[in-house]
Amino acid sequence: MNEFAAEPLAEDALLLRFGDSIDPRVNSRVHAAAARLRAAHLAEVGEIAPSYASLLLRFDPLAWSDAGGTPHARLLAAIDPVLHGMEIDSARGPQTRVVEIPVCYGGEFGPDLSDIAKHVRLDAQEFAARHAAAEYTVAMLGFAPGFPYLIGLDPALHAPRRTSPRTRVPAGSVAIGGAQTGIYPRELPGGWQIIGRTPSVLFDPRRESPCLLAPGDRVRFRAVENAGFHALSERSGHGPPLPDSGDQG
Amino acid sequence: MIAMITAVKAGLLSTPQDRGRGGFAHLGIGPAGAFDAPAFRLANALAGNPSDACALELTLLGPTLHFHCDARIAITGAPLPAQIDGVEQPMWSPLFIRAGQMLTLGAMRTGCRAYLAVQGGFDFERVLGSRSLDVNAALGPLERPLRAGDVLRVREAADGRHGAKTNWSIDPRAWFDPEHPLRLLPGTHTRLLERESREALFSRAFEVGNDSNRVGLRLLGPRLQLAASVELVSEACVAGTVQLPPSGAPIALGVEHPVSGGYPRIGQIAAIDLPRLAQRRPGDALRFAPCTHEEAQRALHKRERQLLKMETAIAIRLKQGA
Description:
The complex is a heterodimer of chains A (249) and B (322). Chain A is of the alpha+beta class and 249 residues long. Chain A has helices at 24-40, 71-83, 86-92, 113-119, 124-133, 226-235, and strands at residues 5-10, 13-17, 45-50, 54-59, 98-105, 135-141, 148-151, 166-169, 173-177, 180-183, 188-190, 193-197, 218-223. Chain A contains 6 helices and 13 strands. In chain A, helix 4 packs across helix 5. The longest helix of chain A has 17 residues, at 24-40. The radius of gyration of chain A is 20 Å and the shape is elongated. Mean pLDDT of chain A is 89; it is low at 237-247. Chain B folds into 2 domains: 3-176, no CATH class; 182-291, Cyclophilin-like (Cyclophilin). In chain B, helix 1 (37-47) packs parallel to helix 4. Chain B starts with a strand and ends with a helix. The model of chain B has no long low-confidence stretch (mean pLDDT 94). The interface between A and B is large, with 54 and 43 residues.
């Protein structure tokens, strides 16, 4: 059962759509499809990039063209058998890593924690404890290099974005925007509610794996004290600030 | 010997670019790369380089560069005055500059982006597979645009020869023609535009907004709206995607586009016309013409054949002249 719709986005881009909402089951099918397509090593396919409910493929349109038709149909014919029976993988759950991220909640690192805790009628400690209790999935990366959109947030912690976005959100800030939580890899402008900060470095282009997190990874937050944060930061350190970027954080 | 060039004046926005950074969209990392790709490739061809050598992309106003080495260079893209030690030089032509000479590039008369290639290519280490600067993400070997005082290294040319003075150039008309309407493929939400907006998309001219850059061009003029509002989850974007934010002024995404976006997608500029998008400057008019996927593919393949033919012809002439 290959239930997806395919849409040609551009001459060299095909979008496979598995749903139209932010739904963990749909997202896990996206990651299962991405894993299968990566393993298939399709020739001249340069990008396999998951979003919440869809998967982007970019390919060389010259290599995939045929007489008369568009290359999208040819690529789709190659994809179909690869994704056949995929439901089994996504039901089983993909073989994913669990990445632990230390966070110092509240105080100078989480300036919005007490306000949004009040907003959802929890005390700040309870809010932080519930944030750290859940296991999250990296639904996709976007907005800036290495910015993870994490799904799995406790519904009691959903909080609206700030009415006026900040021009500078510090690197490592752990934040909530609506039903999602995320981590700012560098200093960025952003409108999410900042509840804490991690000393982990999410993006370093000169590392062998530039991003700490990949699509489909599981994430757990571990609360650390202020002193622990400083000890950890000395070992990592963040990159330089970034100028104005994008519209979604 | 390592060849060096000093930037005496940086120009408005001069950045190292190659073909861009592929394969990292899943990590939130976009392609960047030369916005007007054919002009970039032809600059490399004329300088005697492989098509993916690192060149400088210049924006509206070019830099002044002091060469400390002999070099073959070439300038393509939007027309601008180019002088070597005060002597006017043609664009779209292999040029020869001697150690100690000054290359002065002025303001573009029309268009928005030009390319300067130096034989051997600018010597930057690759970051995530590319030497391109993503200005917005501050990602690349040079994490910011060129500044006065920067010293640029040039790689030793493969054949070690810089050739003699030449007196030929290629006809730029096929490669710089920004007035032409941009062919627009249907987008996911084109059909959701209300009737008047759908008509305006093709019948009215837009004006390129002042806050346009390599991330995207804001299109002012007719305000477009959907017949009914839609709730969208964020999906992949590519260069040329035309998004409709709530303001009603569309944004045509460039080579530093965000890898995903949640705005309705009202069209996709055909790849063949991305160079024309790259050459629109703030204040320029921009029109769209409808296009099908089949037409877009055919046009793209035809241009690729022309480019390869031109690159081969240039390589042969350079060899003959050397």
